Amino acid sequence: MNLDIHYPYGIPFYSDLNFIPVSFANNDTELFTIYFMKNNKVSDLAGIVFSQEKKKYHFPEKSIVAIITQKKPDKIQCYIKLVKDMTYIYP
Known about the structure:
The protein is mainly β. The chain has no helices and eight strands. The chain has strands at 5-6, 19-26, 32-38, 41-49, 54-60, 64-69, 76-81, 87-90. A hairpin with a 2-residue loop joins strand 3 (32-38) and strand 4.
């Protein structure tokens, strides 16, 4: 098991799901959070990326997530339909 790879909160690495590798890089001075989208609404917290950090994740295939920053917790910065092997950089 590679300790550099993170899995969304609540989804164990041994799940019987198909996962895709993605990365998130935070070039901002504050953290941002990653939430799953379900039925066009923000759902469960998937992860947190701290300031100046890059994290590798394995997300379930066909995941759609929302990025919400600490500065503006009531505003969704963007929606992302995750694609295998992509790096998503904020801002």
